[in-house]
Structure formats: structure tokens, C-alpha cells
């Protein structure tokens, strides 16, 4: 079927715009997650300050944007003294999440202190919502890139008057 009155290029321009929108949303989710992480870390520092070393909280949350993606994970740290050393160094271990978007209370409780679990689970509930949205946005982004590739393979091109700027093209390609 042919549509002679339709200008070629509109199809891929839509993909370019939507891909940029999805990438922007991922950055916004990362900013939200970083704000939650900072809030948790400030609480962590405030609550740990007056405690004896053995009573201090050991769970920490990590958030980072990496290779166009978003990573949100929990770690458990402990202090290890190497042979012949007088000082201990922190040793961090990643806690596995499983298949869902949320860490189980059991896996976090196994490593955390009882007094910190309410705040940890509250933080985790907020972060799991971000993980769930990110998963869907990432799938949409992948689908858009695949659709754009199929459109380009069909020979659809971007109209000259609507071409994306060089920086937008670089962002989309990444």
C-alpha cells in the first residue's frame, strides 16, 4: 500500500523525539533515586554517630547512572583488618535482589541491624517504585530503537527541515 501524499521522514522523527523523551525520563528517575539515597545516607550518618562501632548500621544503598541505564542496589559493609595492619578497612558486599523490583525483607534483615530495618524498608519501598518504572521505560526505549531501525531499513528518511541537531542525534545513538 502506498501513501503518495505522506512525506517520508515523519516516522523516524517521531522515534527520535520519543527516544529522547525516554532517556530524559531515565535521568529524572536517577535524580529521584539519588535524592532518596541522600536522604537515607543522611539518616544513616545521623543515627550512627552516637553508637559504638559494633552497634552501627551496615546497610548502604547505591544509585548510579551507567551506560544509559540506572542501577539501584543495596550493599552490606563490614570492616576487615589485614594481617600486620593496625587499622581496619571497609569491605563492601553487594546484596542480590532476585527477579522482582524489590529486595526481600529477609535478605536485608540478614545483614542489617534490627533498629535500622524500618527506615531501610521504607527507603526500599520508594526505590522499588523507581526500579519498576525504570524497567518499563527501558523496555519502551528498546522497542522504540528497534522500531526506528526497522523504519530505516525500509528506507524511511528524516525530512531535511526536521532533522535533529547533532547533539540530539548523538544522544539518540547512545
Secondary-structure blueprint of this entry?
Elements: H1 10-48, E1 59-66, E2 69-81, E3 88-94, H2 105-109, H3 117-153, H4 166-173
Antiparallel strand pairs: 1-2, 2-3
Helix pairs in contact: 1-3, 1-4
Briefly, what is this?
This protein has helices spanning about 10-50, 105-110, 115-155, 165-174, and strands spanning about 60-65, 70-80, 90-95. It is of the alpha+beta class and about 170 residues long.
Tell me the strand order in the biggest sheet: 1-2-3
Head-to-tail CA distance between termini: 33 Å
Domains (count):
1
Helix count equals 4
**Helix fraction by DSSP (H/I, runs of at least 4):** 40-55%
- The count of β-strands is 3
* Percent of residues in β-strands: 15-25%
What Rg is obtained from the alpha carbons, in whole angstroms? Answer: 23 Å
The global form is elongated
Secondary-structure element pattern, one letter each: HEEEHHH
Could you report the average pLDDT, rounded to the nearest whole number?
84
Structural class: alpha+beta
* Main sheet characteristics: 3 strands, antiparallel
In terms of per-residue confidence, which ranges show pLDDT below 50 for 5 or more consecutive residues?
A: 1-7
Amino acid at each position: 500500500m502506498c501513501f503518495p501524499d505522506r512525506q517520508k521522514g515523519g516516522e523516524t522523527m517521531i522515534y527520535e523525539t520519543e527516544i529522547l523523551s525516554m532517556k530524559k525520563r531515565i535521568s529524572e528517575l536517577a535524580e529521584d533515586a539519588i535524592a532518596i539515597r541522600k536522604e537515607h545516607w543522611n539518616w544513616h550518618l545521623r543515627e550512627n554517630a552516637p553508637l559504638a562501632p559494633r552497634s552501627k548500621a551496615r546497610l548502604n544503598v547505591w544509585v548510579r547512572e551507567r551506560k544509559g541505564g540506572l542501577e539501584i542496589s543495596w550493599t552490606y559493609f563490614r570492616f576487615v583488618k589485614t594481617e600486620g595492619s593496625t587499622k581496619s578497612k571497609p569491605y563492601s558486599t553487594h546484596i542480590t535482589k532476585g527477579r522482582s523490583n524489590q529486595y526481600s525483607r529477609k535478605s536485608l534483615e540478614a545483614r542489617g541491624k534490627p533498629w535500622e530495618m524500618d527506615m531501610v524498608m521504607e527507603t526500599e519501598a520508594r526505590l522499588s517504585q523507581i526500579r519498576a518504572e525504570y524497567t518499563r521505560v527501558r523496555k519502551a526505549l528498546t522497542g522504540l530503537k528497534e522500531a526506528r531501525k526497522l523504519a530505516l531499513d525500509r528506507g524511511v528518511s528524516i525530512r531535511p527541515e526536521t532533522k535533529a541537531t547533532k547533539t540530539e542525534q548523538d544522544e539518540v545513538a547512545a
